[in-house]
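### Sample
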Amino acid sequence: MANASRQRHYRHHRGSGQPRRTDGEDNSARAPGPRQKESVPPVLGDCLLSQGRQELREDLVKLLDRAKGGRADLAKDAAVSQEFSKSAQEKLALACIGMSSSTQEDVELMSKVVFALFNNELVKSFDPQPKATPNSNLGIPNTTSTQAETIQRSQVDILRALSAVLFENGAMVNDAFPDLIDILLGACSSPRGQEQSELRRMALNCLANLVHKTGSLYSTYHNRIYDLLLSNLTTTSYYEVGTMVSLSSTVRRKDRASERKEDKALSTRSMPPLVDVICRFMFFTSDTTGHLAATPSSSAFSIGVIKRSSYATPTSSIATSTSTGPLSGLPHVSDIYGDPSLSIRRSIQSSDSEYSDSESGVHQAQRMQHDGKVRLNALLCLQAIARAVPKQLQPHWPKFLTTSASSPTALATYKTPSLLSLMGSDPIPTVRTAACIVLGNILESSKQYLAMAEEKSQLSGMKSHAGILTLSEKVGLMTRELHVGVAAAMNNVDSTIEPTVVIQMIKCATSVVANCTYEKMRRGLALTIFSSIRRFLDSDEPGLQAATLLFMTALLSNTIAQTDLRETILLPSQNETTAPNLLSQLMDLIYGVDIPIPVRVEAWNTLSAIARHHFVVIQSSWPRFDTALAIEQDADDSRVRTAGLLFLGEFAKSGSGASSPSTSDWWKDTLERHILNLFSEDSPSFKALGCDCISHISADAFNGLPNRLEVLIMSLILGTAMDENATARAAACRAIGVFILFPSLREDCTLIVDMANTVLDLCGDPNLNVRVRASWAVGNLSDSLVLLKSNGQDAVLEEALTLSLWTKIMRTALAVCQDNEKLKSNGIRAVGGLLRVTFEGILERERHSLVKEAVYALIKHMEQGSLKGRWNACYAMQNALLNPDFPIGSTAGTSYALDSDMVSWTKDVYCALLQAIQQSKNFKVRINACAALTVPKTRAKFGDQALFRNIVQVLMNAVQNLDNEQGQHEFGEFQYRGQLETKLLRCLDHLLQVSGGLSKLGLELDPTLRQRILASRPVVAPPIDSIQQLTNKVETLVV
């Protein structure tokens, strides 16, 4: 019973994410030990009231026997289970009053009953404010203390029972919480030693269950709890088995505390000592002398390239820290790499020799399990930090990831402990699995960090450059060691013995290749892992095959690694019988009748990744894929058919740029064989896939289709846009947004109006995804109208853009600008495009209503909102100013002169553009604002003299400030600095040419600035006649 309970309570170690409730051990499982009276907190004796009744004891014994039987018999009938739970609570309430707290037997009996009931979930919670019995809350305030003379065993029993009661019930003891915290913190701070370890461990369990799932209810106590846990870890002496169990509980509680989203600040304020102490126990007795060990001379640390950050060692003497801060009193950590005599393995105690051979084996096995629990809980704690604050953890990677300057062919080059050594050689499979999962979690949010990885072509000279490696080179070393270490672990694992570990290793390798860019790394690094994993593709275990295919998909989706992959694993090999290429293996999997469904689905996903980057490779074998897709149409499982259609969509998208005469023929055949029949399916997901596939057709290929197919496609797309399913409607909106830009369809006024009305109506759809796609199509609609005007098709534009349609588009676009953030950019783009093509009559008619509302909507989004919205607003204003009839500036000689001397929004428009130039942190927003200022070609468009002078003055200051703000901008903006400087200078040049000189404005131009303006002017190519004359002159001179 005890073993089964213990296994259940450690279930969260296997990745279930559930916190451990209690220990679950029987009293008989503990070593007897002497019963000595200890000085304990004074409240622990008040938990059981002293009025013993013999009949109550008998009832509790019967209740205990019933509870030990578990809940299997009670689970069959909910009514019986509920009645039993109610009866048990009543008996416990009576026991809290009638049992004697001074009698050890009563205390032990009461503790066992409470533990058995709550641990087996026969009683899940209690009512803190009961209606009938005053003490029906199980007497929680009275069951947290014993008299000073109560022995330690009773204290442990009480805390074990209390831990079971508090599990997920911490929020219900609000009134008693301060007393409970003080008691438990005092017990956790009890003197170290074999006798007190069990008491501390149970107190830690109570503490964790007390704050579990309480949110920020007790946030004022979080710092005290956090410091206590960290103090327990940094001052623990773990040469005794009992203390090892205590530190295991501490690490586990630390895991739970660190993963709390409300307490991210706890982890960040003391990250260095926290990571140090986690690493101290993460490699606790870790054996790194197995397959991953090699000579230490090849390690980058041992040759002096990188100085490893130190963390605690399992020595009894730990130097005192001199640091300051909230954790200044905690012990410091020492370096285990400076002295080769120091080992992270626990020394064998002299008492080990007292065991016989058989007892020694049992003792060693038990000790190995205890050590494994410590490592496992430390790994879980590191995982919690990686999930909560991944960026803050990145500077500490060298503490648990070794780096090396070795070639990728070596199995491994490190002897220091690391996550890779745990993954490859830890004796406990659970720890190896956890190491894989934790490393994968660490890499999930590190793509930007790993992007800086750089690897020099020559690593032999690293020793002479010790201490001057850049951060990118250090990250490059860690990146290579990740690949080498994972490949070495994969080469030394037996999939027949440890399939679960192998699957987790492959998933970890998937995270490695998915987050590494390889842009500045030497070629062939990605193939290091591929070579060690490919063999599992032929495994008989479906889980291994699916995991391997998932890795292949991630690898083939990495853009930078495609050159190596195409030359190595995709092109046909010379001997297909002995070494078939990956494409052939994937074909065998999708054609296999007895292949499991998940494997076939992952095989199609891998082919989709190939089609995305290697169109020619798929095209050369298209007949076989065409046949396979036809077979999948009759598949019983929709997952396989869906995966095949996704592959078809990726292949069509990859080949959308092809313009060969055979493209239209391929589309005609594909539409008739695989796509058009999807619209007759009952499943809306297949209709959505059909729309997605059709949306990848190019304009040239569409024009080459028979007229009947063109009409059928548009009819199906417009019909699907009215489907009841939101997914189908969203896919149809995307397809309409693509077709509305086709030149041949733009000339059909009727079709333009139909598509416009469809997407405009769907902008009010209750589904957000549909509105996003519809708003994108509306933005493309405005772009299509702009193209009509730019190409001189004014007649088509006048026929299509009626006043009613213009009004509907503008109202819809303005509504989109006020919708979800995902839609706003599309609405802003639509407003700008529509203002560019608006006729003069509509501008005059709507200048006080929709036009004014549109202008101030653009001004609003130029001044505030997301960077994407501001960029689009500046671009939209540029579009509006490109309309020669757009009213702005002076009203002299126009119909607007009756209102005022200057159009009302002139000053607001230019001030918003100037504000974007002055204050925006994004250089691309500034560039678009400058582009908008260069559009007006006459002085009158810029308003009065004061406004124009202000515009010129701001631009001159912007050029000067750009030189002074070089160190104040984000790194990613510097690539646009040159473009922004040129745009500012050309904009200033344009304004000076429009004004006729600075003398009229009362401004002076610095000579240096004047030279920069002249140098920024684009170089105008000489006419062709002049070039020919110059060529003839040169030829004459040569002769």
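The two ends are 107 Å apart (CA to CA). This sample (HEAT repeat-containing protein 6) is used throughout the tutorial notebook.
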